[in-house]
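Journal club prep — side note

Before the paper discussion, L.F. wants everyone to see what a predicted structure for a comparable chain looks like in token form. Sequence:
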Amino acid sequence: MKIRAGFRLGYECVQPTPMLLVLNIHPSRRIDLLTEQVLNFSPPIEAWNYTDGFGNACSRIVAPPGLLEITTEFEIYDSGLPDPVPEGAMEHPIQDLPDDVLVFLLGSRYCDTEKLSDFAWAQFGGTEPGWPRVKAIVDFVHDHIAFDYQNADLLRTAHGGYTDKTGVCRDFAHLAITLCRCMNIPARYCTGYLGDIGVPRDPAPMDFSAWFEVYLSGHWHTLDARHNRPRIGRILMATGRDATDVALSTNFGPTILKTFEVVTEEVPHGEAELAHG
């Protein structure tokens, strides 16, 4: 299938403001692009591209005073298949994990493992290691947190999500990641596009989505504690320890987000054929 995706973001600054942007799709998905995916700036400004320590495609800019609009639109190929379910996947002893995976066992800004370790072992210590244990964690988080856009809180940690029992997709991801790490299962945060493909349309405005990955049987596997079902059409933008590492923008000065529009939708079959002539 073909998916059309993109966004329009508007930032208002009172002074020249350096910014770090994580707004490109992940390098692992660039092979699937059917059109170019580039960031457009209005007014035109200079941008420097770089790859961060987690392998994400990032940009550096200095936003001018006033309103800066950043846009992109692209089409990408997708298999149209739901997320694979890693049934039978096994945990690794910590001593056998690759060096670059170890960081995803540690606590981080939003994944406060030290506050949830005792609970995690009491709750999940008796489950079968590997996929059954991860599935038990995902089921618990899905049932424990009630999704509510009105209760979004950029300062809420995993322990806060556990205590508040409400939040948005990032809160589901942070709590699930933290509980996995408490159980010695590497887990990392993911952000990207996820449209209403193969599911009833959500009447709420489109947004970027957060999910997570766990490392089992030598591979990273996609999981989503908010939806708790395999979904179609994920487009990965970035991975990291938690939301800090994959923030859409990190602003080094006063900034107001004035415009936020996201699009991700399946290209109708007839339209896709017409485009090929």
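L.F.'s comment for the group: Residues 273-277 have pLDDT under 50 and may be disordered. Keep this in mind when we get to the figures.
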